[in-house]
Design goal:
This protein has 504 residues and is α/β, with parallel strands linked by helices. It folds into two domains: 302 residues, no CATH class; 134 residues, GMP Synthetase, Chain A, domain 3 (2-Layer Sandwich), CATH 3.30.300. Helices cover 37% and strands 22% of the residues.
């Protein structure tokens, strides 16, 4: 196949130059986004309710529009699903991303408007390639094909004709420019298949004879695909199958627990990894340096960002800061106002600000996916890194895990129970638990304080999950698919109790 990379590189370089203004004028860019969003929605139902006018300042906007969680917006969004127009955004919205994570455990439906699809989701994907080409001047990414792992349109709703509800990736694949299909695998029919038992072999069969140069998806699910490709072909390294594979654009969950396994499957000398922050609610950030996986916020994609200091995240009247007031080293709950009709929406993620000019972040975890039952403030990024280090110490490999508190009983202090599905079990489970505990202390001072001399908190309890447990649990909730993932941490035992029952 001809290499079109030199031909299209100037297009991506133009975009890269535009993004450089983020460095010195991030506040200006963000104010422009807010004023544009307010103007476009002035005649909508929410615009009329909160009296959107062109001269509305950020301070006035913050005073008029309350913070929202999904439950606040759900009735209004369901009216949009039913076909009402000019509600949260202009026009009729016919596409919705189905996602998990609401407080009652049911699916949520995130609007994908024409504006958010074009100016945010697809623009974010374009930006990822722009930054990758800047980081890798020798890239030949357009000399072959992209392997994009997507979900399906499976959902439990009765929909009007023309309305589509499914995984974000399914919506993106369904509406992608037809020219992109010439350099993408698999075919749309396979990409959107719902049954993963049939989809997995179809993905493998459709890709093994293609010249794949880049792959995109969630690390845990793509790992399964790559392992099946190797099994099917008898190869030891994925570069024996795809010799020109050069980059994995990944997101959705932390890559750290999977990094070592990818390093064994791929030739490290030929492989790059670029992290993205591509959520159902929008494409927010991309890694822009090999030295750090901190991601630069995309400031001109129809999203206005606000930040709640993490200590105020559960407050009824939290402090809320715009982008130009965040501080390096602080962790915040992310709030967005976007061209999909989500106004001052608490997305549920926490981010740590690694740099302020331009603003670069790392995902710290979920506002609801953490353990703080004993004042230990354990976040997902702590757990992922500690698990990675414990595996390195003991030679173990972890396929998936979740953890939850076990509250104090007569014979034991409170502690954390870790339900772990191993690909390779450690030879000494007690050593694994001890190493996990030690690394959690290294990574989290609050955890270390609570673990002092076992006075307040006992060491972790490891429970081995049967093979396939987490897949079975996801299937039992109706959430198995390319973008579904197991909650790493829970502050109560509701979810782990379901999993333990299946495990028994």
């Amino acid at each position: 196949m001809l290499d079109f990379t030199p031909l299209v590189r100037p297009l991506f370089e133009n975009r890269l130059r535009r993004s450089l203004r983020f460095i010195d004028y991030g506040d200006v860019v963000q104010r422009e986004q807010l004023y544009s969003l307010i103007g476009q929605a002035s005649f909508t139902e929410i615009g009329q309710k909160y009296k959107f006018i062109d001269s509305l300042t950020y301070t006035e906007f913050k005073e008029r529009v309350p913070l929202h969680c999904y439950e606040d917006l759900q009735p209004t969004i369901m009216r949009m699903v039913a076909g009402e127009k000019n509600v949260l955004w202009r026009g009729v919205t016919t596409r919705f991303a189905q996602s998990s994570g609401t407080s009652n455990g049911k699916s949520k439906y995130i609007p994908i408007t024409d504006d958010s699809l074009r100016l945010c989701h697809y623009q974010g994907g374009f930006d990822v390639v722009a930054h990758y080409l800047n980081l890798n001047p020798e890239s030949r990414i357009f000399a072959g094909k992209s392997f994009i792992l997507g979900g399906s349109f499976a959902n439990e709703l009765k929909l009007k004709p023309g309305v589509k509800v499914g995984d974000l990736s399914a919506n993106l694949i369904e509406n992608i420019n037809p020219l992109a299909n010439l350099v993408r695998v698999p075919k749309k029919r396979i990409a959107l298949m719902e049954d993963w038992e049939k989809k997995l072999p179809a993905l493998v069969e459709s890709s093994i004879n293609e010249d794949i140069t880049n792959i995109s998806g969630v690390p845990s699910w793509f790992l399964t695909v790559l392992e099946e490709v190797l099994r099917r072909t008898g190869a030891d390294c994925i570069h024996e199958v795809w010799p020109h594979l050069e980059v994995f654009f990944h997101g959705g969950i932390s890559f750290e627990p999977y990094r070592d396994r990818y390093a064994r499957l791929c030739d490290p000398a030929r492989m790059h990894y670029l992290e993205t922050y591509n959520a159902s609610e929008g494409f927010f950030a991309v890694q822009t340096s090999w030295e750090s996986n901190a991601m630069m916020l995309l400031l001109d994609v129809g999203v206005f960002y606000e930040f709640i200091p993490v200590e105020d995240a559960e407050s009824d009247n939290p402090r809320v800061l715009p982008l130009w007031e965040v501080e390096k080293g602080k962790t915040y709950a992310l709030v967005i106002t976007a061209n999909n009709g989500l106004w001052r929406y608490k997305i549920g993620d926490t981010v740590r600000v690694e740099q302020t000019s331009p603003v670069k972040i790392k995902i710290a975890g979920r506002t609801r996916h953490y353990i703080n039952a004993f004042g230990e403030e354990l976040m997902v990024h702590n757990a992922d890194e500690a698990m990675k280090r414990a595996c390195r110490d003991t030679g173990a490999e972890v396929k998936d895990y979740t953890a939850a508190p076990v509250f104090a009983a007569e014979d034991r202090h409170g502690h954390h129970q870790w339900l772990v599905e191993f690909s390779t079990q450690p030879g000494d489970m007690e050593l694994f638990a001890n190493r996990l505990d030690a690394h959690l202390k290294e990574l989290n001072s609050d955890y270390e304080a609570k673990r002092t001399k076992d006075i307040f908190l006992d060491g972790p309890e490891i429970t081995i999950a049967r093979s396939g447990l987490f897949d079975r649990w996801l299937a039992s909730t109706g959430k198995r698919g390319g973008q579904r993932k197991v909650p790493r941490l829970s502050n109560d035992r509701a979810l782990i109790a379901q999993m333990l029952e299946l495990n028994d």
